[in-house]
Amino acid sequence: MKIIVTYASAGSGHFRAAEAVYDYFKERSLSSELKLVDVLGYSNNLFKKVYNSGYVFLVRYLPMLWAIGFSITCARFMQPIIRWIFFPITLLNTKRFTRLLIQESPEVIISTHFLASEIAAFLKRNKKINSKIVTVITDFGVHPFWIQEGTDIYIAASDITRAKLVAAGVSKEKIKVLGIPVHPGFSKQGAKNELCRKFNIEVNKFTVLVLTGSFGMGPLEKIVEMLHRDAQVLVVCARNKKLFLKLKNKNYPQVKVFGFVDEIYDFMSISDIVITKPGGLTVSELLVMELVPIFISAIPGQETENVKALRIYGIGSLVKNASDVRGKVLDYKLNPEKLKRVRENIRLIRKPNTLEDLYHVIC
Predict the structure, then answer these.
(1) What digits encode the pLDDT tens for the residues 48-100?
(2) What mean pLDDT do residues 153-159 have?
(3) pLDDT tens-digit profile of 216-256?
(4) 177: closest CA among 49, 268, 265, 309?
């Protein structure tokens, strides 16, 4: 079986989901021919730069403009107009990707970004390919761009996601509520004592994990300054070198500062709560780890929709001001029963077997 797993390199979440699928299928299905493809890698350089840099610029510096754009593109009456204007531009700039799909003619296309799904579904409707198209929605909400005539299966994060798809006109038979694919390491809780020794972390202290997200966004420095006296704080700065150096130089006694780490699930294993942005992949990862979240710096639109969905399940809270974070953390620290209740809610919706379930759906 020939399978193309495709994503768009706009934000890290779509890639992480696609990579997890690709690695799992490669290990399980030795007889299959697999390719991992970035749709933007097969577009022209200007389109790729505008798509990537434009998104980052808007969510970082003009979030309200992004929110307005997100709302407009969600409006049902705007869909035909938006598709009529923008899809020809997309096709014009992704000719190499369309040629790849036509030439390869895979039995299955697994897409973790709506851009790839849109192009694949267009080719299928026009009988250029006959592939089974499987769209993995990497958020708990559903922007209309995810929904494409010609898609055979939608992989949904939760029952709320499924309800949104059905409300948008997708047949129930096409929807599988399997969760968002994450690296298998998140399904394996590490031995806390061993991991604490490995990272030189005290075992019995209330521990808060602070993550920057792929863009290094959020008031992380202020949050660490407020929390370092009340808890053991682990800060993963990822590629934000400026933040890493600032926090290292402060040398807070209860704070451990890390740069980019490959095995973030190890840090989740030894933490009581996590403070992070509510990106779809991050949310899925912390749910699998049964880690209680406090959300900050949500991108208007897809990330605020994630927060709303989780709130229905009694999981997590969005803190709009950094000054309010300390109160939330102390509330969990001083009320372990509250922490326990949230973990129980997480167990009701966590999906640790997404990759295996997806494999059985396709193979």
Answers:
(1) 988 888 888 888 888 889 889 888 988 888 888 888 888 999 999 999 999 99
(2) 97
(3) 566 888 999 999 999 999 999 887 888 889 889 998 989 99
(4) 309
The number of beta carbons lying within 10 Å of the beta carbon of residue 104 is 16
DSSP structural state of residue 107: S
Q: 3.40.50.2000, 3.40.1350.10, 3.40.50.720, 3.55.10.10: which CATH number matches 184-349?
A: 3.40.50.2000
Q: Which DSSP string do the residues of 21-68 spell out, in sequence order?
A: HHHHHHHH-TTSEEEEEEGGGGS-HHHHHHHHHHHHHHHHH-HHHHHH
Q: How far apart are the first and last CA of the chain?
A: 9
- Give just the sign of the alpha carbon dihedral 283, 289, 290, 295: negative
Is the pLDDT score of 146 beyond 80? yes
Q: List CB contacts of 293: < 8 A, sequence separation 6 or more.
A: 273, 274, 275, 276, 278, 283, 286, 310, 315, 316
Looking at residue 16, its pLDDT comes to 94
State the Cα–Cα distance between residues 227 and 296, nearest whole angstrom. Answer: 15
Tokens 């003009």 identify what position? Answer: 62
- The dihedral built from the CA positions of residue 159, 163, 164 and 166, taken in this order, carries a sign that is positive
Supply angle C-alpha 273, 279, 283, rounded to 5: 45
Check: CB of residue 187 under 8 Å from CB of residue 265.
no
Give the domain ranges of the chain.
2-181, 184-349
Burial class of residue 309, CB neighbours in 10 A (0-12, 13-18, 19+): buried
C-alpha atoms less than 13 angstroms from C-alpha of 99 in its C-beta half-sphere: 7
Q: Which of the given ranges, 78-87, 317-326, 340-349, has the highest pLDDT on average?
A: 340-349
- CATH 1.10.3470 at 2-181, yes or no: no
